[in-house]
Amino acid sequence: MRIGTQELIIVLAIVVIVFGPTQIPKLTKMFGKSIKSFREGVNEAEAEDAKDNTVTETKAAEDEKKD
Questions:
Q1: So where are the chain's domains?
Q2: From the centroid of its chain, how far is CA 54?
């Protein structure tokens, strides 16, 4: 499902009406910071998962050598 031009214009018009044109730059800055923070959290979680997988694989390899 894609957002068309008309839908986007309607949403933007509602945002301008609700928040006013002076608040939009503040909102976009806040939204950008939120997205950046979310991406950093996802990257940290992926790095931890990769580290955990490496440790698990190492332990499994050591267990196989013992047997």
A1: 22-66
A2: 24
d(CA 42, CA 48): 10
Euclidean distance between CA atoms 64 and 66, whole angstroms: 5
Q: For residue range 7-63, what is the model confidence (pLDDT) as tens digits?
A: 999 999 998 999 888 888 998 899 999 999 999 999 999 988 888 778 777 776 777
Cα(17)–Cα(30) distance, rounded to whole angstroms? 19
Give me the pLDDT at residue 24, please.
87
**Cα gap 42→34, rounded to integer Å:** 12
Question: Distance between CA 34 and CA 2 in Å, rounded?
Answer: 23
Residue 15: which of 5, 6, 2, 28 has the closest Cα?
28
